[in-house]
Amino acid sequence: MAGPLPLGDPAPADGRLPSDLAIDPAVPFSAYLHVPFCRVRCGYCDFNTYTSGELRGAKQEDYASTLITEIDLAKRVLADAGALRPMDTVFFGGGTPTLLPAGDLARMLGAATDAFGLVAGAEVTVEANPDTVTPAVARTLADAGVTRLSIGMQSAVPHVLAALDRTHRPENVTTAVAAAKDAGLAVSVDLIYGAPGESLGDWEASLDAALALESDHISAYALIIEDGTKLARQIRRGEVPTPDDDLQADMYELADARLAAAGFDWYEISNWSRTVEQRSRHNLAYWRGSDWWGFGPGAHSHVAGLRWWNVKHPAAYAQRLAAEESPAAGTERPDAESRTLERVLLLSRIREGIAVADLQQDKRARVAGLIADGLVDPAAAVRGRVQLTLRGRLLADAVVRELTD
Predict the structure, then answer these.
(1) Burial group, residue 239, by CB count within 10 angstroms (0-12, 13-18, 19+)
(2) Which of its termini does the chain have fewer beta carbons within 10 Å around, N or C?
(3) Domain span at residue 395?
(4) Residue 325 lies in a domain
(5) Which pTM does this prediction carry?
(6) Distance between alpha carbon 325 and the CA centroid of its chain, in Å?
(7) Where a domain ends, among 250, 265, 287?
């Protein structure tokens, strides 16, 4: 299970939004539906997920109905605030959403669509473990209105998968992608690099395997060791080595080069797509600061600068909703300084970058130094944008510190 929830102000039991919240109806609205179930816990994962032995009073078979109760709550809250808008994007994340029957996912999507509506051409994504995707599952999801499947490949090398505690067989990724494509779904595959014992050659083999799938989108994330995870404990005991930062940088550069050669273009530090249309619009909504409601235990929401987060455990989440109460555990409204820091942090990650004019006035002069250090594209800066170079992507945190400290 994930670490503790953030501190914040108490959330109202009825879920109502503050009366002084300035909600812009033109800002896109998204929905995130969290499915917190996993067959096994991967050693690196600190997401709010639960295996069957950890549910303690919650039942997977009841989950869809419980989450639909929160959808009904959200509809009332947003309607009362004058903020009811159709969804631009929907994302089922986890956990492993496809551990639930595809019909349950379809029912949740149908309830959200009935409550809020979908814009024309909306993006609807479901994350999936390769072992859980069959032709029947893919067809049911497509018939329900899902447009995109995000498949957790992570690696094509068995010993790397074992180091990550991933249980799927590499060949199942191929069958899952084929099933998704046959159902008419767009496909993204997710990779992780820098696992204990993974060589540059192993990583190259995984990239080759991912490219051979001919997907529309590839995400490649550096392994991060999170406190409280099994992997963190193994490293602390000296059982496995700490990830090598220099090797991870080499892996990132290799990924960028191989993906670019295959026709993919980076649009966010860890994400590449073949076309602009195949970018993950849902993730871009986060990076651009749009509004979204996060449904499910531990899910976070954001509307007009107000943030809130739900109680973590599925049993506590179900109990709140059964009592006709909001499942929100806390709420916050970041101050102007925090919002500026977050805006720079998020927008600097995407290809379009952040406008120089959006930086605090006393920080704008620092852009010249970042150009001199090879971290910011000089041509983009002339056009008034701070856009990261390849070296800048590798040192993005340093760029953000320079533009905010």
Answers:
(1) exposed
(2) C
(3) 336-405
(4) no
(5) 0.95
(6) 27
(7) 287
